[in-house]
From TrEMBL:
It holds the Pfam family GHMP_kinases_C. Catalyzes the phosphorylation of the position 2 hydroxy group of 4-diphosphocytidyl-2C-methyl-D-erythritol. PANTHER family: 4-DIPHOSPHOCYTIDYL-2-C-METHYL-D-ERYTHRITOL KINASE, CHLOROPLASTIC. The lineage of its organism: Bacteria, Pseudomonadati, Bacteroidota, Bacteroidia, Bacteroidales. Coiled coil: none annotated. The gene is ispE. Its EC number is 2.7.1.148. It catalyses: 4-CDP-2-C-methyl-D-erythritol + ATP = 4-CDP-2-C-methyl-D-erythritol 2-phosphate + ADP + H(+). This is 4-diphosphocytidyl-2-C-methyl-D-erythritol kinase. Pathway: Isoprenoid biosynthesis; isopentenyl diphosphate biosynthesis via DXP pathway; isopentenyl diphosphate from 1-deoxy-D-xylulose 5-phosphate: step 3/6. The active site is at K8, D136. One of its GO terms (biological process) is isopentenyl diphosphate biosynthetic process, methylerythritol 4-phosphate pathway. Residues 205-257 form the GHMP kinase C-terminal domain. Keywords: ATP-binding, Isoprene biosynthesis, Kinase, Nucleotide-binding, Transferase. Belongs to the GHMP kinase family. IspE subfamily.
Length: 274
């Protein structure tokens, strides 16, 4: 079975408070976009619970025990008698970008295992498993635009479409870690109820919403300020950093001709999924 875990962007991101558990409360919109990895699963050889993992494309690296795809398998294997399996992840979505690529891989792994082994898990049960893997993993189960609050795990479906728009995502050569982005953040109340965003024209969004991480991340990486400015200069209706960065995206009318020359950056363009 082959599935295509895809990225998300954050439309608006307000860091509203510090929690007693050390995390932060936030308010944001998660919106799916088509920049995708490729994940293939199949039956393997060996005893039940045996797991073989192959990685191509961008190197995942790091401690295999912290790989969210592997953790997703073991999460279900703890509750179900899963046969031996082999997994191939072709990684395309860049790391340290604020695009949720690792979370998408984990959520799509859960969905693929559910379908492949006919586990018959309900959508809500899948959301419960996904939330145990990471704050934004649950979003990729239902995979529809959602208003997220809490740590990002509390989701409310919203009516928001970007039909008629093309999205361009520019990822510079460096990434931004989540702890790095939170350093220096001062929580403050949300400036706008993001659940009402669909009532506003896209070209007015910049007057109402912000990504709170931009203030601190742009100060450390001034080149991101330049990328945002360049996307506006090339005709974007709205530009923002996604999540904690470092990817910057712009929303353009579909009929707009766009210069995609961004040296030393990884660039993706496509229509939005909704």
């Amino acid at each position: 079975m082959v599935v295509f875990p895809h990225a998300k962007i954050n439309i608006g991101l307000f860091v509203t408070g510090k929690r007693n558990d050390g995390f932060h409360n936030l308010e944001t919109i998660f919106f799916p976009v088509g920049w995708s990895d490729i994940l293939e699963i199949g039956r393997g050889e060996g005893e039940s619970g045996s797991f073989r993992f192959k990685n191509t494309g961008l190197e995942v690296g790091g401690d295999p025990g912290k790989n969210l795809v592997i953790k997703a398998y073991h999460l279900l294997a703890a509750d179900f008698h899963l046969p031996a399996i082999q997994v191939h992840l072709h990684k395309i979505i860049p790391f340290g970008a604020g695009l949720g690529g690792g979370s998408a891989d984990a959520a799509f792994m859960l969905k693929a295992l559910n379908a492949f082994f006919d586990l018959r898990l309900s959508g809500q049960k899948m959301v419960t498993y996904a939330a145990r893997l990471g704050s934004d993993c649950a979003f990729f189960i239902d995979d529809r635009p959602a208003f997220a609050s809490g740590k990002g795990e509390l989701l409310e479906p919203i009516e928001l479409t970007l039909a008629g728009y093309r999205i361009i995502i520019v990822k510079p050569s460096f990434g931004v870690s989540t702890p790095e982005a939170y350093a220096g953040i001062t929580p403050r109340p949300a400036g706008y109820d993001l659940r009402q965003l669909g009532q506003l024209p896209v070209n007015t969004w910049k007057e109402y919403i912000r990504n709170d991480f931009e203030a601190t991340v742009f100060q450390k990486y001034p080149s991101l300020t330049l990328l945002k400015q360049q996307l506006y200069e090339r005709g974007a209706e709205f530009v923002s950093m996604s999540g904690s960065g470092s990817a910057i995206y712009g929303l353009f009318k579909k009929d707009r001709e766009i210069n995609l020359d961004f040296p030393d950056c990884c660039v993706w363009q496509g229509e939005t999924l909704i």
